[in-house]
Amino acid sequence: MEKFITLTSTIVPLPIENVDTDQIIPARFLKATSKEGFGDNLFADWRYDSNGDEKKDFVLNEPKYKGAEILVAGKNFGSGSSREHAAWAIAGYGFRVVVSSFFADIFKNNAMNNFVLPVVVSEQFLADIFDAVKQDTKMTLTIDLEAQTITNNATGKSESFAINTYKKECFLKGLDDIDYLLSKKELIEEYEHKNCQ
Amino acid sequence: MKTLFDKIWDAHVVSSVDDGPTQLYIDRMYCHEVTSPQAFDGLRKRGLKVFRPQQITCMPDHNIPTVNQEKPIEDPVSKNQVDTLDKNAKEFGVNYYPMGHEKNGVIHVVGPENGLSLPGMTMVCGDSHTSTHGAMGAVAFGIGTSEVEMVLATQCVFQSKPKTMRILVNGKLKEGVTPKDVALYIISKMTTGGATGYFVEYAGDVIKNMSMEGRLTVCNLSIEMGARGGMIAPDETTFEYVKGREFAPKGEEWEKALAYWKTLKTDEGAVFDKEISFDAADIEPMVTYGTNPGMGMGITESIPTLDQIDAAGRVSFEKSLDYMGFKPGEKLLGKSIDYVFLGSCTNGRIEDFRAFTNYVEGRKKADNVIAWLVPGSWAVEKQIKAEGLDKILHDAGFELRQPGCSACLAMNDDKVPAGKYAVSTSNRNFEGRQGPGARTILAGPLVAAAAAVTGRITDPRG
Ligand code: SF4
């Protein structure tokens, strides 16, 4: 996996609360048996009309937001189902960071397992980003994982964000949980042995 | 002094990473066809076998049609996903109940009814409604596909320990109030993200007096307020339910298990990170009016007005009502509806069919309503027939379909058309959940029955 250290990018603003996983990737797109191709259907029902044509007014379709690697969304992003397809869709589209003031639990894990970094900011910081992007659609954010800070380059303000040391290492080194767990096989067998007495 | 959750969690810790997640041992994993193919694939790519195949149980449920299951699935994409599970289950040697098998059905209905889900266990599935199994007195939660792969490979997951919350519901439920109404009421007060980061234990008289089916319904909906899971301490009701089921322990094993299960309760004086209590007398039959399960109200109440919604939430609130075709401040009673769905892992159990049948007995289905009655499993279907409920339903103008997830998420052909209203006993009213443009009103089996015979949102109490 690609290592994540710092990222400066323009953003796609989605100032809606409680964006659920059925919105991120509707159930009818879950029938694939690989992880590829979900990016095209990210936010499908908001993004395309019933003929499959792009809806002009949806933010992902606006040319000025193209190429952004950071999605900034309203509170409680990713609620609903455990479908990892939501994380694959976000990663597949090209986002490497999602910023919100609150994430649903399972989504957060799924995102991290796919090297998409969920960054939790304060309500005020979030509101400031939405304000700034209204003024200038090309405003940028900088995420520095080593320092655990996020900076709004339009206002110059920074905030620190939390991530546990283990996950941080995984991101910085590009390692996943399975590699780690496989190295712990004896421990698992020991546990099993102890518990069937 | 420990909470029930802590007792089970602590008993399953294999190791912890400093300032990181816990490596948790998983007793049982369920897999369905939607969230498992990439996990099996991952295993293949790493050249691994399933570590403990006897602890993995797979079945297709999301994509399967609810008619003509004896024939091949028509939709080629659905068929491919179901066939992929078939192939993976056989190749990796895990327990497998294919479509049409007597033990097939919605995974969260099948697990408990076969004694696969037991008190004290840790259980996971690539499905958020895994919280259902917590009703057995277990720690059960949904995981993503990468984590499914982890469990296949190592029988462990990495999880940060959630905070604990106890929700007490005390008092006596009013007539016509079902477990689903209790859950929808709790979620309406907690909001859709209100329990995020917590594992919930439900307790209090109402929970104590509730049947196992009812408890499964309540725990099922835990995720709709964001909780990692929900659980209920096992008691005589639980033991009675489990005893004699196919995979439940027998003989001496049973006695041993029972002795352990009896220790599974929150110690007096144990501290929860949060405690909330509700009064049963405040709970009415519920309906939802919006596009998340937290947007619910008593059936006789009115949708909130704009000034009752905080400023930050107003855009979402208006967008939601716009989608539903409702106005702030209006009542739903008397509104005309088009579809009724009885089923899902929330309300697809025998008690739900009994309640629905009891209400419609001697009445007739409204002509303007299309009703989908989908048992949660073949075992439920068998029981419905054994009790003669299918005849009563038939006389009232209703037919049973074959088991599966069906219109709960409309991955098969059971889709509610755009703009149509469905009173649904399932668990999610998200935009497009029951089909693109479909408008879902979540309710319990009695409200669904009343809507089915009147064609309108109707108070089942009279
Ligand atoms: S019935 Fe609905 S909620 Fe339950 S497992 Fe199936 S799709 Fe998910």
List strands and helices in order, with pairings.
The complex is a heterodimer of chains A (197) and B (462).
Chain A: E1 6-14, H1 21-24, H2 44-47, E2 70-73, H3 85-93, E3 97-100, H4 105-113, E4 117-120, H5 123-135, E5 140-144, E6 149-152, E7 157-160, H6 165-173, H7 177-182, H8 185-195
Parallel strand pairs in A: 1-2, 2-3, 3-4
Antiparallel strand pairs in A: 1-5, 5-6, 6-7
Chain B: H1 4-10, E1 13-16, E2 22-25, E3 28-31, H2 37-46, E4 56-58, H3 76-92, E5 95-96, H4 107-113, E6 122-125, E7 139-142, H5 145-154, E8 156-159, E9 163-170, H6 179-190, E10 198-203, H7 205-208, H8 212-220, E11 229-231, H9 236-242, H10 251-261, E12 274-279, E13 286-288, E14 296-298, H11 314-324, E15 339-342, H12 344-347, H13 350-360, E16 370-373, H14 378-386, H15 389-395, E17 421-424, E18 439-442, H16 445-454
Parallel strand pairs in B: 3-4, 3-6, 4-5, 6-7, 9-10, 9-12, 10-11, 15-16, 15-17, 17-18
Antiparallel strand pairs in B: 1-2, 2-8, 13-14
The structure holds iron/sulfur cluster.
Question: Would you kindly provide a written description of the structure presented here, covering whatever features stand out?
Answer:
The complex is a heterodimer of chains A (197) and B (462). Chain A is of the alpha/beta class and 197 residues long. Chain A has a single domain, classed as Aconitase, domain 4 (Alpha-Beta Barrel). Helices cover 33% and strands 17% of the residues of chain A. Chain A is built from eight helices and seven strands; from the N terminus they run βααβαβαβαβββααα. A seven-stranded mixed β-sheet of chain A has the order 4-3-2-1-5-6-7. With 462 residues, chain B is α/β, with parallel strands linked by helices. Chain B folds into two domains: 284 residues, Aconitase, domain 3 (2-Layer Sandwich); 169 residues, 2-Layer Sandwich (Aconitase, domain 3). In chain B, helix 6 packs parallel to helix 8. The longest helix of chain B has 17 residues. The N and C termini of chain B lie far apart (47 Å). The model of chain B has no long low-confidence stretch (mean pLDDT 97). Chains A and B meet through helix 4, helix 6, helix 7 and helix 8 of A and helix 2, helix 3, helix 5, strand 8 and helix 11 of B. Iron/sulfur cluster (SF4) binds next to helix 12 of chain B.
